[in-house]
Amino acid sequence: MPVQEIKKAVSNEELLRLHLISGEFYTGICHPDSNDTHFFVINTSDRSLTLPYWAVKRFERMH
After folding, report:
1. Domains of the chain in sequence order
2. How many Cβ atoms sit within 10 Å of the Cβ of residue 21?
């Protein structure tokens, strides 16, 4: 998955369903991490996670 596609979706603060290379799935609103350009934050219904862009295997925009 090209990192630029993920970064574009994250910078637009879109609702995304992420599939991580670890096998986990998360759905939530994503936004760039203000402290490090290599990371982003996903806010799910029950938690907030900071993840590196390289950890995303694939993503889907939710409408």
Report:
1. 3-61 (2.30.30.100)
2. 11
**Stated pTM of the model:** 0.88
Confirm if 9 and 59 have CB atoms less than 8 A apart.
yes
pLDDT per position as a tens digit, 44-58: 999 999 999 999 999
SS in 3 state form for the chain?
Answer: CCHHHHHHHHHCCCEEEEEECCCCEEEEEEEECCCCCCEEEEECCCCEEEEEHHHEEEEEECC
The answer to whether residues 51 and 31 touch, using CB atoms and an 8 Å cutoff, is: no
Report which DSSP code applies to 35.
Answer: S
